[in-house]
């Protein structure tokens, strides 16, 4: 199902990159080992204004009693720029563990990871920090079409309909979509631009590995 290209929360690379593969639109900085979107205006150098964080969720025994879930987030290749966390009752007390909930939790934690890390990277006066933040864009990269379409399209429809679907039922995983939407909206109110980017699993191998390892450490319900 195609994405709504008009959604302000959906990441769109430069039209001049239409002939490039998705992997060619992703840069890795050799100095900081972090991921960024390829720059429209300076495509031969790494532009640090479009910060990528790759996220993934894994769940062994999806939706069953005893399922084990984990999340993986990577804004770069260094260990300090990554998260590999088992899904616990503290993180998600609702249960049962499912792949969709793990994917949403990964997006929530990944967004906070990249925003917090970027804020620490640009330590300085409040005026300097504010100006740096408003120049940057934070892009959550996921191989889950469910997450990307949900937060860029469906959420707005659900909110207008009291979090009910067109069939009159409460949207599945509405609690996590609400959490993610609240976080994104809070950043947007501060002038930060947050977007989401759907890619194939082959481009999400780092986060996938982190999530799989985390799920293996998870405690079953």
From TrEMBL:
Highest taxon of source: Eukaryota
Domain RNase H type-1: 47-216
SUPFAM superfamilies from the UniProt entry: Ribonuclease H-like (SSF53098)
Keywords noted in UniProt: Endonuclease, Hydrolase, Metal-binding, Nuclease
Signal sequence residues: none
EC number(s) on file: 3.1.26.4
GO terms classed as biological process: DNA replication, removal of RNA primer
Enzymatic reactions: Endonucleolytic cleavage to 5'-phosphomonoester
Gene Ontology MF terms in the entry: metal ion binding; nucleic acid binding; RNA-DNA hybrid ribonuclease activity
Family listed: Belongs to the RNase H family.
Protein name: ribonuclease H
UniProt organism field: Mycena maculata
